[in-house]
Amino acid sequence: MKKLVMALALLSVAGTALAAGKPCEELKGEIAAKLDAKGVSGYSLEIVDKGSAMGGKVVGTCEGGTKEIVYKRG
Fold first, then answer.
1. Signal sequence: where (predicted)?
2. At 74, is the pLDDT very low, low, confident or very high (cuts 50, 70, 90)?
3. pLDDT at 28 over 60
């Protein structure tokens, strides 16, 4: 669990700072690949409008900061 929290924190910082201009589907795929490589399972990633992330953790922004990628367990 500690590794998962650390991975999400790093993804959040990297996703927000470095990938703000990326297409959402591309960034979502990169985040999913990183989570899968770390052995994380039972999660979903959803692309939502900025500010409408409910019930999850924002792990990246895309399309010039207008959209967010939200991580949810289960």
1. 1-19
2. confident
3. yes
User: Which helix (H) or strand (E) segment is 11 a member of?
Assistant: helix 2-18
Q: What b/e string do you get for 21-53 counting C-beta neighbours within 10 Å, with b at 16 or more?
A: ebebeebbebbbebbeeeebeebebeeeeeeeb
What does the DSSP assignment read for 12-73? HHHHHHH-TTS-HHHHHHHHHHHHHHTT--SEEEEEEETT---SSEEEEEETTTTEEEEEEE
This prediction has a pTM of: 0.71
Element (H, E) at 5: helix 2-18
Q: Which two tokens stand for residue 50?
A: 């900025």
